[in-house]
Amino acid sequence: MITNLAGTQIRAIRATRNLTQQQLADLAKIPRATLASVERDDGNPSLAVVFKIALALGTTVDELIIEEHQRVQTINKCDMPTTQSEDGTYHAIIVSPPDSKHLLQLIFTLDPESAYEGKPHPPGSEEYLHILNGEVIIEVAGENMHLKKGDSARFGGNVHHIYRNPTKSAVMGLVTILEK
Asked: Are the CB atoms for 56 and 32 separated by under 8 Å?
């Protein structure tokens, strides 16, 4: 049995999709009376029932049972990990949540006329680079691309890549890495 925090959320999702209780019960392959009981918060539904409802709604059990205040995770700046290159020309702050399993997002600065060699990520990963300020020449597997403020690039994160700042001003960018 699970604590029944799901009723309100199920009702809200069902309402936004203009589904009747009977329609949702049919999609979930449960009796309408069971769905009505869950939505009224009568008793504690089994995990199997909540799972069937979640599947029918195209969502997860977590989305149905996590209290609203738990849905938003905040990270204080002082709790965000930082990293830098050995020579100190590249500095990054990790802005993605620490418990993200397949996502790493960071904001970096690269000193003038310097370079940073990116670390290859697991096969199947993708890296997205967005230039917030300045210019970067990115070398990916021997191919060079010149990116300016506002430009973005996407490439396989598992290939050799180097960020180069050809200017006399620091560059700032956003990197998002998706690992499969």
From this structure: no
